[in-house]
């Protein structure tokens, strides 16, 4: 009897196995049952026909035949069990994953067949049982073989050994066709040769510091094999290098712009650097420098405007600019002093404007005295600008004129009693000349039997003679 060879599909193998089982059953009947039955009948018949014991022949040949028949049946039974197990494992692609161990099984099976053919049935049965044990050991080793195949396949992938990787993952898929890692590994093995070329190009560009080209190659490798550790690490490493280079360039641009006063450019460069490395202490420090530079620039801007307004003697504008400086830096001494100085001058201009805008007030003694004191206090100012000097001169002239009596002529009819409030009574006359300070006077004329006359007379400063008629002409 020879060992079975399984190469057909599973359903064919199962059909053949069923046929084999039927055949083996018939063989068992013919070989085991029938010989025993025939042997037993032969023994009975022989015992019936046999002469008396003293005349009986030797029984050795018949006993030997019975033993051989029994050993043959045992060998065939062991072979049947072996073939059943082998058929199942063949369907599970044991020829792919069994390796040298399965080759040993086939060799031992051939040895058992040879022993059976040579009618060494007992030895054949022992060999067949040994082979069955080997098959059970093979089946029990499937999990370990799967693990080993996956590990060796992964190592082959890492070494870019496409042939070895394909071999090990083929074994893994033969054991478990649905195994996801084995499926991915087999797919990766198909791209290993191309992957190795792309990665080598990436390493060469990286060594030459051609960062952009290196990144392109590593990214191409990762697209080809997303599970490639070298491709992933290459992308991360080169991307980090490019990012660091861009960060250094952005920081350099920011610092250069700060030094040159190009603060908008510095702000944009620093923002680029912050996006590349938000946690960088350099960014934080440079941001402080930029903030100080921006504040200094704003302060300088307001100070320039304040100085221009000082030159133009627009003191309210000066105050506004220095207060803007103090909003940025409350300790700026020049602004503190500038505000105080500007407030004094602004107040002085406001007081001067009070008289200049209404010079008639100077005709009253108290306002005129206040204006004179204001002029005296302004004499001590060392930084009198043209506008202030002009206002002081104008007010001084107005005060002087308001303090200089003016020649006036009052005409009457020699019948009217003439008086001027707060000046005096002048009686009756036809003409009267007198000196009066510029201002508004109330002149009054009275006459018995006539209605009184009241005239408000404004005497203005100047050399021209000013005349007024005061006469009571309306009889009562």
Features:
three-stranded mixed sheet; alpha+beta; disordered N terminus; single chain; Serine Threonine Protein Phosphatase 5, Tetratricopeptide repeat; 71% helix; 4 domains; 476 residues
Question: How would you characterize this protein structure?
Answer:
It is a single chain. The protein has 476 residues and is α+β, with helices and mostly antiparallel strands. It folds into 4 domains: 131 residues, no CATH class; 105 residues, Serine Threonine Protein Phosphatase 5, Tetratricopeptide repeat, CATH 1.25.40; 55 residues, no CATH class; 64 residues, no CATH class. It is built from 16 helices and 7 strands. A 4-stranded antiparallel β-sheet has the order 3-2-5-6, with no helix packed on it. α15 runs antiparallel to α16. The radius of gyration is 65 Å and the shape is rod-shaped. The N terminus is likely disordered.
Task: Please outline what is shown here.
With 476 residues, the chain is of the alpha+beta class. It has 16 helices and seven strands.
Biggest sheet character: 4 strands, antiparallel
Helicity level: over 70%
Mean pLDDT over all positions: 86
β-strand amount: 5-15%
- What sequence of helices (H) and strands (E) makes up the elements? HHHHHHHHHHHHHHHHEEEEEEE
Which structural category fits the helices and strands? alpha+beta
Q: What topology, given as strand order, has the largest sheet?
A: 3-2-5-6
Shape: rod-shaped
Rounded radius of gyration (Å): 65 Å
Count of structural domains: 4
Number of DSSP-assigned strands: 7
**Amino- and carboxy-terminal Cα gap:** 176 Å
